[in-house]
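Appendix C reproduces, verbatim, an entry submitted by the partner laboratory led by Prof. M.T., so that reviewers can inspect both the input and the predicted structure.
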Amino acid sequence: MADTSDFRNGLTLVWNGDLWTIIEFMHVKPGKGGAFVRSKLRNVRSGKVVDNTFRAGERVETARVERHQYQFLYEDEMGLHLMHTETYDQIQAPLSKVISGKGFFKIDGQVDVLIHAETGEILTVEVPKTIEVRVEQTDPGLKGDTATGATKPAVIETGATVMVPLFINEGDLIRVDTTTTSGTYLARVNK
């Protein structure tokens, strides 16, 4: 058990019968009345974000969750097949556990798996916020066309389609932000 003075970003709570992570919070002491804590909570299982106000000093139950790095092996009708990067244990996670980065699973790429410490239940599977991928297919690039801001579709090695600048060619390595549904081009990577 903890109270509102123990709040910090990333703390996982058992609230309304489900697991919620604190995204942000603010202690408020109005001129009149009792102090309270405004918070923004994200449901660990569904990704839903809600606002809630707790009274100052209110007791809440905390949950212990662990974040582990796994390597993505492959996907089939049974879900995602992952391997722990340190112990080499393999697990299977249903696609319903993926809350961000769908379509950006790169073979042999890293993913974060959030696990409930007491039950061992897989809560979420997340792709890193940015990934480096190779462009598999796109229209030919236009050399020197960087000032217009025009874009074209490009299919990356994960199979997703991302809008990229006109100067990007097939075979180029690019950095993509996976936090948006369709992915956002960030930069060309020189390697």
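The two ends are 49 Å apart (CA to CA). Additional entries are available on request from the coordinating office.
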